[in-house]
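Technical annex, item 7. During the second reporting period the consortium partners agreed on a shared format for inverse folding records so that results from different sites could be compared directly. Each record opens with the tokenized structure and is followed by the designed sequence. A conforming record, contributed by the partner at site C, is shown below for reference.
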């Protein structure tokens, strides 16, 4: 087996396991690299705060670095909490002749608000910036090192310019502190215009250790030979997924879920198996043919932290029926198999995260009367209201319409069906929403019972 690239993390220990050395090693492992470490300080902390810090002597920090590098080929390194000027200078001296890329995460304050950098260390930190392939400050850190306030895009550009003059080859100003729908990180590389790198913002209180996770993953990408932009983008994608899969741990700010990619692979197999079994039950469901539209039916199921259509499974060949009413599930369960019903489900989940399944059904007066009889909550959209700037593909129309219907409803979490009456050449359809396969099966049977009653 080919040896894994080694990434050295030089940072503090987080006894709560969410940030620092612990977060770095988890992220490095998930990125497919081998993690080595040099610990700069011990912290007593949990999700609510830091109760104590014990610094390691500068000499021993240097000894850790030199001992690792003398025996193990290091392909990249990163720094996190360096705490004091003597430790920073010891790290700088140990790395001055390095032949691998270094990512400096200039950690100053913990997520909980605890100060992690002594006052006399700010100037010392600037002294090691020239060693960095990449510097990754958040907005408050960038303000601290540049001495300017950052409120606008122009401020970010100016801050990047000032920071690049301090010696790093590239600067990534992390935009998590900005109040915006998307989280935009700005990557500035010497001799180039800053590049905006956007990710969907994740609404979560569990953000402890995000900076550590991002910088460790970027360092891992550089260790694997990625160019800077690719390394940053892949790290952003990983962190975004880990945040979406984050969990409550203790009473304060929990960590991203570093194991999310591995856990999701396991979940995928479970969903595909459950969808296959559900398809077999659909083929035996009496009267289901009356709910299958001319464009055929499909059922989708989303991963718990679905972000795009590749996180949503459906039948690759849809569900059809014969003239005799025999239901046939065509193809097989596959992620990314149907962009139409996947877009519907992803939009529904924005308003109601409890929705994990969706099915496209026929819409006519008899079916709608049965929907009302079942007490299903309806939401509607009119294709005539679609803005002209929306590209005219069916999947984009369904995405726009579902989002509009859900967001304009006073109780989106109660919606069972999203309906549209079609248009010229477009068949009317309804999309049945459900929490899981069991809920979907119960709703379909209830609707069929009402139709036959």
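Designed sequence (site C submission):
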């Amino acid at each position: 087996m080919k040896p894994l690239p080694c990434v050295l993390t030089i940072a503090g220990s987080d006894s709560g396991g969410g940030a620092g050395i612990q977060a770095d090693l988890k992220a490095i492992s998930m990125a497919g690299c081998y993690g080595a470490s040099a610990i700069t300080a011990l912290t007593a902390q949990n999700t609510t705060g830091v109760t104590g810090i014990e610094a390691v002597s500068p000499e021993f920090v240097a000894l850790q670095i030199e001992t690792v590098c003398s025996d193990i080929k290091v392909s990249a390194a990163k720094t996190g909490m360096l705490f004091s000027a003597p430790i920073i200078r010891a790290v700088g001296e140990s790395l001055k002749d390095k032949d691998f890329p270094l990512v400096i995460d200039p950690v100053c304050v913990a997520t909980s608000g605890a100060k992690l950098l002594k006052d006399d260390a700010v100037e010392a930190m600037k002294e090691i910036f020239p060693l960095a392939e990449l510097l990754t400050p958040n907005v408050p850190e960038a303000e601290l090192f540049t001495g300017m306030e950052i409120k606008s895009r122009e401020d970010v550009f100016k801050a990047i310019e000032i920071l690049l003059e301090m010696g790093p080859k590239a600067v990534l100003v992390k935009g998590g502190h900005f109040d915006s729908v998307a989280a935009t990180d700005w990557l500035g590389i010497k001799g180039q215009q800053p590049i905006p790198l956007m990710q969907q913002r994740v609404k979560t209180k569990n953000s402890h250790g995000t900076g550590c996770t991002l910088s460790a993953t970027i360092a891992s990408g550089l260790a694997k030979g990625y160019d800077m932009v690719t390394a940053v983008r892949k790290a952003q994608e990983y962190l975004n997924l880990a945040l979406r899969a984050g969990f409550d741990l203790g009473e304060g700010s929990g960590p991203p879920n570093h194991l999310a990619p591995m856990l999701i692979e396991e979940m995928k197999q479970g969903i595909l198996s459950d969808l296959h079994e559900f398809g077999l039950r659909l083929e035996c469901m009496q009267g289901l043919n009356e709910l299958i539209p001319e464009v055929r039916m499909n059922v989708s199921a989303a991963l718990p932290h679905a972000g795009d259509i590749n996180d949503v499974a459906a039948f690759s060949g849809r569900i059809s029926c014969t003239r005799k009413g025999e239901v046939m599930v065509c193809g097989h369960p596959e992620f990314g198999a149907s962009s139409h019903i996947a877009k519907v489900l992803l939009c529904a989940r924005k308003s109601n995260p409890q929705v994990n399944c969706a099915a496209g059904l026929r819409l006519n007066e008899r079916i709608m009367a049965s929907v009302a009889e079942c007490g299903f909550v309806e939401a509607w959209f009119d294709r005539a209201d679609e803005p002209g700037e929306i590209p005219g593909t069916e999947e984009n129309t369904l995405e726009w319409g579902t989002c509009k219907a859900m967001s304009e409803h006073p109780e989106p979490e109660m919606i069972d069906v999203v309906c549209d009456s079609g248009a010229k050449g477009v068949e009317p359809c309804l999309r049945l929403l459900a929490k899981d396969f069991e809920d979907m099966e119960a709703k379909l049977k209830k609707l069929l019972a009402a139709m036959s009653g």
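Residues 260-283 form the longest helix (24 residues). Residues 262-452 form a domain with the L-fuculose-1-phosphate Aldolase fold (CATH 3.40.225.10). All partners now use this format for quarterly exchanges.
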